From TrEMBL, chain B:
<dbReference type="Pfam" id="PF00787">
    <property type="entry name" value="PX"/>
</dbReference>
<dbReference type="GO" id="GO:0035091">
    <property type="term" value="F:phosphatidylinositol binding"/>
</dbReference>
<dbReference type="InterPro" id="IPR001683">
    <property type="entry name" value="PX_dom"/>
</dbReference>
<dbReference type="GO" id="GO:0006907">
    <property type="term" value="P:pinocytosis"/>
</dbReference>
<dbReference type="GO" id="GO:0015031">
    <property type="term" value="P:protein transport"/>
</dbReference>
<dbReference type="InterPro" id="IPR014637">
    <property type="entry name" value="SNX5/SNX6/SNX32"/>
</dbReference>
<dbReference type="GO" id="GO:0034452">
    <property type="term" value="F:dynactin binding"/>
</dbReference>
<protein>
    <recommendedName>
        <fullName>PX domain-containing protein</fullName>
    </recommendedName>
</protein>
<comment type="similarity">
    <text>Belongs to the sorting nexin family.</text>
</comment>
<dbReference type="GO" id="GO:0005768">
    <property type="term" value="C:endosome"/>
</dbReference>
<keyword id="KW-0653">Protein transport</keyword>
<feature type="domain" description="PX">
    <location>
        <begin position="19"/>
        <end position="166"/>
    </location>
</feature>
<dbReference type="Pfam" id="PF09325">
    <property type="entry name" value="Vps5"/>
</dbReference>
<dbReference type="InterPro" id="IPR015404">
    <property type="entry name" value="Vps5_C"/>
</dbReference>
<dbReference type="GO" id="GO:0005829">
    <property type="term" value="C:cytosol"/>
</dbReference>
<dbReference type="GO" id="GO:0042147">
    <property type="term" value="P:retrograde transport, endosome to Golgi"/>
</dbReference>
<keyword id="KW-0813">Transport</keyword>
Length: 512, 388
């Protein structure tokens, strides 16, 4: 079972990121503005923008913010105080290379334009070197820690990298399953609501883990551990291949930090839990009273495509699962047959035939091994790929729902604003000057909100578009790679089969 | 109503050595009809023997007629020292029929293409069962016709020639007795044969060998059947995978589409190969084992008869004069039985070894052929995909 992660796809982008990272660390200025959202987001390639907005923090570099990665530091503005979970709460453990300084508040209206105005701390443009930065991650060495029902598996997460944002070039840490779930939770809290597709970790499994805890040293628990190890590795690969997520300090911390605080809320949240949440959200969206008028069919069509694909992949996964099981059956039956054939060979009184039958038994033994390995390949290369994507597509659906929620929020704000205006009008007419001021204040507040939410919506639209395209590209590559890998495994299997039978043939011919 | 082509039949006739060599009596089953559960075989004879009325003739026969013939031969005392070729097993269409039923139930969940392919597979399976049963009946007759003694049996000749419905002749009350006593006798025989003191080294060896071998080969047959069935399941799964990949590809419009198309295509091609591997294995290995399980049983039956004869010969030693005479007769019978038995068992051994050799060689060759086919298919596909 090969451990090497797939070739790191966006290495150039990584390198550019890290360039930016370097730039940031020396920078005290609060660069985290509301990033001329549109400009940067509508482009397909982030880095084409880089030249034009030097000094502007790349939208994808959202490291400092726990919540909406792209947002500016709006906490200073009361208007937005309740809008998002603020950073102060969970930044305690983050020791990212980049320290957040959020001192300078920026007024909302300026922030929008700030991208173009923040030339003040423009650094000389970093040359994009042509070196590709490397990042290899492996999850290995599952080890059981503890005994009985409190036992748990610990995995070694090793990173090898030339990315400057890490403290060293090669390092490893020990992580347990709940750590992975904790990482997912943090990432999804921050990024999912902005329309990013956050990769899902493997499922919790009470049955599987109980067996391991109880200490059953049988093939099913070793299989389970291997399945989980491989899934965790793939999970990390997906996380780091997403340029935004890679920049998240939580990710770096996960890879680098020796001790992570134990993630407790993962008791409830897991991949499956998240999916359930997504489905509930979808239901809620479907029940919305105001339906969105899509000026552009792209979103509707895409969502439909995604839903169809999810269904199809589920079906395919079920069938491949059946294939895996049938092959395992074949494997078992072949082993049993081989033994029986060996006995028959022993019983046979014609010497040459006896030999041939024993040889046949040996060939069948080898066939059993072949089938076993093929079943494993069926599973790890094919079935797990499909399972991963069924989950990921759930995550993609979530983006779409988040977009609609964002739209809804904007709409709600608009109607609230309308109501406030009506209140003002009434007060004007009733001539109550004291209350009038308050009404005017509220109107101002809500006008700002409406603007903000509209911008949020536009931004999430752009993010979702980009994310979907990125996802499709990644999926395409992933599938291509795996299809070839799977076919190659079948090829190797058949070639070995030929060897075994060719070795047997002379034995059969020698019977007389 | 499927019929069989001559070439396929010749190809199928592999579990036994080439029979039908003696031109004086050539038998084959050129045709068979399947009506619901009943299979009607057309038994065709070509002969130069004067005992028959015509040099060439055909009669319709049912499976029960074959059983009648077999049982009659078994009961014939003169043949006690011969290995009577095992009766052909009843045609069993249960498995494909059940699968066809399941397929019908699951039709709604599959694409039209998938359903058609599965149906084709099942029809092929059905046809294979049919062909096998024809072959097995044919081989039975050919074993008889090539046996120096049995080919002259009057009942055999009636079977071949009698152009009326045999079931009239078949309905003899004795039949039932023999059939039911058979199983009872079997267990008694086992006890007898293991208990009886053997006088002859040859038979002692044979007995040990056959008893042991018989259990083992029966076991191997069952295990081989399971293995072949599992193999078929894998081949069938490939059909489903190909079908779903096809539907996914239809909705895909990125560069991935080509890959999915080729991948689906590959599964479709591979499943044909895997299907052939499974059925070749069935024919060469499983069928071989099945046949010889029955044949070994026939050899064992010979030993039982001999043991019973020996027992009889020993028993009548109580009353004197008449008994002496009786005993001499029994002894004689026993000795004749033993002599012919020895010959039979020796030739049986030879037959078995030759048949195994032929089938194992053919199976190995087929496995290699199919695997090479798969290899070239896979290599071609991988090459194309890498350049995509």
């Amino acid at each position: 079972m090969e451990r090497k992660p797939p070739p790191f796809p966006d290495s150039e982008e990584q390198e550019a990121h890290s360039e930016k990272a370097e730039e940031e660390s020396g920078d005290d200025d609060d660069d985290d503005d509301d990033d001329g959202g549109e400009d940067i987001f509508t482009g397909n390639d982030l880095f084409s923008e880089e030249g034009s907005y030097p000094g502007v923090q790349e939208p994808s570099v959202d490291n400092q913010h726990a919540s909406n990665g792209l947002r500016s530091d709006d906490d200073e503005q009361d208007l937005f105080a309740e809008a998002r979970v603020e950073l102060s709460l969970d930044r305690s453990s983050t020791k990212g290379i980049r320290e957040v300084t959020r001192s300078s508040p920026s007024a909302p209206d300026i922030s929008y334009k700030s991208s173009t105005s923040k030339m003040s701390f423009e650094k000389p443009e970093e040359e994009e070197s042509n070196d590709k930065f490397e990042l290899n991650i492996a999850v290995t060495h599952p080890e059981k820690v503890g005994d009985g029902m409190n036992a748990y598996m610990v995995y070694k997460v090793s990173t090898q990298t030339t990315l400057p944002m890490f403290k060293s070039r090669a390092f490893s840490v020990r992580r347990r399953f709940s750590d992975f779930l904790g990482l997912f939770e943090k990432l999804s809290e921050k990024h999912a609501q902005n329309g990013y597709i956050v990769p899902l970790p493997p499922e919790k499994s009470v049955v599987g883990m109980t067996k391991v805890k109880v200490g059953k040293e049988d093939t099913s628990s070793t299989e389970f551990v291997e399945k989980r190890r491989a899934a965790l590795e793939r999970y990390l690969h997906r996380v780091v291949s997403h340029q935004n997520l890679l920049q998240d300090p939580d990710v770096r911390e996960f890879l680098e930090k020796d001790e992570l605080p134990r993630a407790v809320s993962t008791q409830t949240l897991s991949g499956a839990g998240f999916l359930k949440m997504i489905n509930k959200a979808s239901d809620a969206v479907n029940k919305m009273t105001i339906k969105m008028n899509e000026s552009d069919n792209w979103f509707e069509e895409k969502l439909q495509e995604v839903e169809n694909e999810e269904q199809q992949l589920r079906k395919l996964h079920a069938v491949v699962d059946a294939l895996v099981n049938h092959r395992k059956d074949l494997c078992g039956n072949t082993a049993v047959f081989a033994k029986s054939m060996a006995m028959l060979g022993n019983s046979e009184d014609n010497t040459a035939l006896s030999r041939a039958l024993s040889q046949l038994a040996e060939v069948e033994d080898k066939m059993e091994q072949l089938h076993q390995e093929q079943a494993s390949n069926d599973f790890f290369i094919f079935a797990e790929l499909l399972a991963d994507y069924v989950r990921l597509l759930g995550g993609v659906r979530n983006c779409f729902d988040q977009r609609i929620k964002t739209w809804q929020r904007w709409q709600d704000a608009q109607s609230t604003l309308q109501k406030k205006r009506e209140v003002e009008a009434k007060l004007l007419w009733a001539n109550k000057p004291d209350k009038l001021q308050q009404a005017k204040d509220e109107i101002t507040e809500w006008e700002a909100k409406v603007t903000q939410y509209e911008r949020d919506f536009e931004r999430i639209c752009a993010t979702v578009r980009k994310e979907v395209l990125r996802f499709e590209k990644e999926k395409s590559n992933d599938f291509k790679v795996h299809i070839i890998k799977y076919l190659e495994s079948l090829l190797v299997s058949q070639q070995r089969l030929i060897k075994y039978w060719e070795a047997f043939l002379p034995e059969a011919k020698a019977i007389s | 109503m499927p019929t069989i082509s001559q070439e396929y039949k010749t190809a199928l006739r592999s579990v036994s050595v080439d029979l039908n060599n003696d031109v004086s009596l050539l038998i084959d089953i050129p045709d068979a009809l399947c009506e619901r559960d009943k299979v009607k075989f057309t038994v065709h004879t070509k002969t130069t023997l004067s005992v028959f009325q015509k040099p060439e003739f055909s009669v319709p026969r049912q499976h029960e007629d074959f059983i009648w013939l077999h049982d009659t031969l078994v009961e014939t005392e003169e043949y006690a020292g011969l290995i009577i070729p095992p009766a052909p097993p009843k045609p069993d269409f249960e498995s494909p029929r059940e699968k066809m039923h399941k397929l019908g139930e699951g039709e709604a969940t599959m694409t039209k293409e998938e359903y058609t392919k599965m149906k084709q597979e099942l029809e092929a399976e059905y046809l294979a069962v049919f062909k096998k049963t024809v072959q097995v009946h044919e081989v039975f007759l050919q074993r008889l016709s090539s046996h120096p003694v049995l080919s002259k049996d009057r009942n055999f000749q009636i079977f071949l020639e009698y152009d009326q419905d045999l079931s009239v002749r078949r309905k003899m009350p004795r039949r039932c007795l023999v059939v039911s006593s058979r199983t009872w006798l079997k267990s008694a025989d086992e006890v007898l044969i293991s208990g009886v003191k053997e006088v002859d080294d040859f038979f002692e060896q044979e007995k040990t060998f056959l008893l042991d071998y018989s259990t083992k080969i029966k076991d191997s047959t069952t295990k081989a059947e399971r293995m072949t069935r599992a193999h078929k399941n894998v081949a069938d799964d490939y059909i489903h995978v190909a079908a779903i990949l096809n539907s996914i590809s239809a909705e895909e419009n990125t560069a991935l589409k080509k890959h999915l198309d080729k991948f689906s295509d590959m599964f479709e091609k591979l499943r044909k190969v895997e299907g052939r591997v499974a059925s070749d294995q069935e024919l060469k290995l499983t069928e071989l084992l099945r046949y010889y399980t029955r044949d070994i049983q026939a050899a064992k039956d010979l030993l039982y008869r001999r043991a019973r004869a020996l027992d009889k010969a020993r028993l009548k030693s109580k009353d004197v004069a008449q008994a002496e005479d009786n005993q001499r007769q029994c002894m004689q019978k026993f000795e004749k039985l033993s002599e012919s038995g020895k010959k039979e068992l020796t030739s049986f051994k030879g037959r078995r070894v030759v048949a195994f050799r032929k089938n194992l060689v053919e199976m190995a060759e087929l496995e290699i052929k199919h695997a090479k086919n798969s290899v070239s298919l896979l290599q071609g596909c991988i090459e194309t995909l890498k350049n995509c």
